Amino acid sequence: AAAAAAAASAVRFLIFLTEMASEEPASKTAKNIASDTHPEEPFPRVLSRSIVAETRWLQLVNLSYEDAAGKTRKWDAVHRATAPMADLRERGTTAVSRRPDAVAILALLRSKSHRETTIVLVRQFRPPLDAHTLELPAGLVDKGETPAEAALRELKEE
Q1: Is the pTM of this model over 0.70?
Q2: For residues 70-85, average pLDDT
């Protein structure tokens, strides 16, 4: 029962995040939250991307971006090769059009008295670190699956 309640809370949170990332949101989204916060300030944006190196799963991407002060800067990033890159935004826009391809779930288990809350973490071995880590349950969104469905699936798997 506690796991089901945590899953329901996680799904409500993920639906909120999905609405923030969608193009036609049901509620206030990141698109207008960002511009409402400081509408007079320029919004940073990526100007260009170039792939520097690539493997089957990852791409090393060199980004050129404009910061809030209008200065052009460089940034190196890793991008999942199996996911499309988002389109570059035009100057003056804050909307970013992309669909989430991964989920992370913050599952909270509350005692019946609501005095104690436990965060669900997963112990994973990570080869680059040659060590175990504690992480939020997470995973990729499968083709034809919504982020909320992926979150439930991942939470059940973990």
Answers
A1: no
A2: 91
Tokens 């969104």 label which residue? 141
- Dmax (CA) of the chain: 54
Percent of the chain at pLDDT > 90 equals 47
Taking Cα atoms as reference points, which of 52, 56, 61 lies closest to residue 88? Answer: 61
The CA angle 82-107-79, to the nearest 5 degrees, is 20
pLDDT band for position 118 (50/70/90)? Answer: very high
DSSP secondary structure letters along 34-90? HHHHSTTSPPPEEEEEEEEEE-SSEEEEEEEEE-TTS-EEEEEEEEETTSPPPPPPP
Is residue 120 within 8 Å of 154, Cβ to Cβ?
Answer: no
* Numbers of helices and strands, H then E, in the chain: 3, 9
